[in-house]
Write a structure and sequence with these properties.
Layout: E1 3-6, E2 12-16, E3 21-25, H1 37-72, E4 78-84, E5 90-96, H2 103-109, H3 111-119, H4 133-141, H5 148-153, E6 158-160, H6 167-171, H7 175-181, E7 187-189, H8 191-194, H9 202-214, H10 218-234
Parallel strand pairs: 6-7
Antiparallel strand pairs: 1-2, 2-3, 4-5
Length: 239
């Protein structure tokens, strides 16, 4: 039986279930600009066309990366993890595995390691020995996120958006911030990517995400896309 936590005095509720986190609301709680159907369709068209092209172009690179991950560390090449998407729906985000197989489960099972993990904004420390050698390179260059182009084609993510959060991570946010993160599809890149990536703390990232959402437009998304290659190339803030 589902358990409901009231998140506003009127009609906004957070339905927390073992396999689903859904935000049900009939009255927006954020003062966000209205987005026209045309703008959303243009944004989705850009996602599909660009993600398709990028997948085709990057396919040889992705094949090499998958092989290197398999050869240098036992376990699958792809790491799958549930994140919260549009409307609170959970989806399986795809990344190249950058840690020793089973690391994430081991961290969550150890109270001390889990506490450190959560204090570090739900990330392993950059010098954690469980990150593989090839994994450090993939993280620094953001190549570990290339499989998320598949998530974009599936409609679970957008090329530009807010960073996809873990369910436990979202549950620690305020009602206001929970609304923020389920308002749009999460993105492969965003303001957090071009403004510092992993070096941006949780509070500052929320501010960046809020700024992005309050000024959402197809034009701003294109600008972020154009700035992303430089941020990735120079690896600023990447761990």
């Amino acid at each position: 039986m589902s358990s409901f936590a009231e998140t506003s005095r009127t009609d906004t509720y957070l339905d927390v279930q073992p396999v689903l986190l859904r935000l049900v609301t009939t009255q927006p709680t954020l003062d966000l600009p209205s987005v026209t159907v045309t703008s959303r369709r243009i944004s989705r068209a850009i996602d599909v066309v660009a993600a398709t092209i990028l997948l085709v172009v990057s396919a040889p690179v992705m094949a090499v990366i998958a092989l290197l991950v398999k050869l240098t560390s036992p376990g699958p090449a792809i790491f799958r993890q549930q994140r919260v998407g549009l409307g609170g729906e959970l989806f399986e985000v795809l990344k190249f595995r950058t840690m020793a197989n089973g690391t994430h489960a081991a961290v969550l099972d150890d109270p001390e390691l889990r506490a450190l993990y959560e204090l570090n904004d739900f990330k392993l420390a950059s010098d954690d020995p469980r990150i593989t050698k090839i994994g450090r390179f993939l993280r620094r260059t953001s190549l570990d996120e290339l499989p998320q182009l598949v998530n974009v084609l599936r409609g679970q993510m957008s090329l530009v958006g807010v960073r996809p959060l873990l369910q436990n991570e979202l549950e620690l946010r305020s009602r206001h911030d929970r609304d923020l993160y389920v308002h749009h599809r999460p993105g492969l890149t965003g303001l957090w990517q071009i403004e510092g990536r992993s070096s941006v703390g949780a509070t500052d990232r929320i501010k960046l995400d809020r700024s992005y959402l309050e000024n959402w437009s197809v034009r701003s998304n294109v600008k972020i896309l154009l700035r992303t290659p430089r941020a990735v190339l120079f690896g600023h803030g990447a761990h």
